Amino acid sequence: MLPPELSEQACSLVPGEDRLVFSIIWDIDDTGNITGRWIGRSVIRSCCKLSYDDAQDIIDGGFEVDVSGKTGPKLHGQFELKDVVDSLRSLHGITKKMREIRLRNGAFWIEIPKIVFLFDESGNPCDSLLGVRKESSFLVEELMLLANRSVAEVISKAFPGCALLRRHAEPKSMKLKEFEEFCRKRGLELDASSSGKLHLALPKMREKVKTDPVLLQILLARAARAMQLAVYFCTGDLRGREDEWAHYGLSIPLYTHFTSPLRRYPDIVVHRTLAAVVEAEEAYAEKRQSCAASDGIGNRCFTGLYFDEEAAESEEGREALVCAAVRYGVPASEVVSEVAAYCNERKRAGKHVEQSAENVYLCALLKNKEVIFFSFFFHLLFFI
């Protein structure tokens, strides 16, 4: 979406080179709970680049540290490979606990294999396999979800009338009842009264039909069909209806997209809004001398774990937020509504193109096969 001068040279992390970024730093205890948070501008100089396979090897414990430096990723700066390995394994342990907490609190996840096509030298599909997500993917995903959720909390409270968020409505009762009836006819009991109960019911269903993988895939596909699509929205359009801001699949009250500004326009709008909040906080601190930026994590009046509504509603706070919004071009609610509607339409169109392309590739692959083994392929559907 962006020119290479921005997406590759100015923005993407490059080992050994400084990059200007927005950082979110959390204090996380041994049980995976968040105890503190700092959001602000920073400079990152990464020491190395890891592929998902490299990270998975480290997580699995099969990654041997070569003190000679002849194997493994190229390192920059004062860090050693052992530092990278120890940090990643520690991070994996933390994110596993965070994921357990999220699922225990009612988050809903449907894991359906996604078909991956292999191409020959001419660009024609020659084979296929089912993609498998690994722990390294879940590690990154967990931190991205936490970052998106943290930013949603900040911008929705600082700018409650024009924040761009993402919501996921509850499944339509008719589709859910159809799914429950489909399961009941096959001797499967299902409690879908909430996302958490539906999530707890799926493992039991998997256990009961584990000898029939085709039926399992059909059940998961029908469960996914019962879900509504997540959509972008402007908070000003749902003022007084905050219960409709929630994300059903993640089982959280606030969510947005912040982590991918190089490929999603909504993230750029969110970055502008967050930049305004950070600057307003700094300006307010200078005037009040009560929540100075140097006080550390957890002591920020607008971006910390606890939003100071009294500060935001004060004369100094309102002035700081308005001035920062003008400086960073935070869109008015009408503009945010238009952006949300347009991005939702483009998201649906993009998904349709993706599915149509997969159907074309699958037909071309089957056409060239002398012997066809029938199987079921479904898309990985997760509404975030």
UniProtKB/TrEMBL annotation:
<protein>
    <submittedName>
        <fullName>RNB</fullName>
    </submittedName>
</protein>
<dbReference type="InterPro" id="IPR050180">
    <property type="entry name" value="RNR_Ribonuclease"/>
</dbReference>
<dbReference type="InterPro" id="IPR012340">
    <property type="entry name" value="NA-bd_OB-fold"/>
</dbReference>
<dbReference type="GO" id="GO:0000175">
    <property type="term" value="F:3'-5'-RNA exonuclease activity"/>
</dbReference>
<dbReference type="Pfam" id="PF00773">
    <property type="entry name" value="RNB"/>
</dbReference>
<feature type="domain" description="RNB">
    <location>
        <begin position="1"/>
        <end position="280"/>
    </location>
</feature>
<dbReference type="InterPro" id="IPR022966">
    <property type="entry name" value="RNase_II/R_CS"/>
</dbReference>
<dbReference type="GO" id="GO:0006402">
    <property type="term" value="P:mRNA catabolic process"/>
</dbReference>
<dbReference type="GO" id="GO:0000932">
    <property type="term" value="C:P-body"/>
</dbReference>
<dbReference type="InterPro" id="IPR001900">
    <property type="entry name" value="RNase_II/R"/>
</dbReference>
<dbReference type="GO" id="GO:0003723">
    <property type="term" value="F:RNA binding"/>
</dbReference>
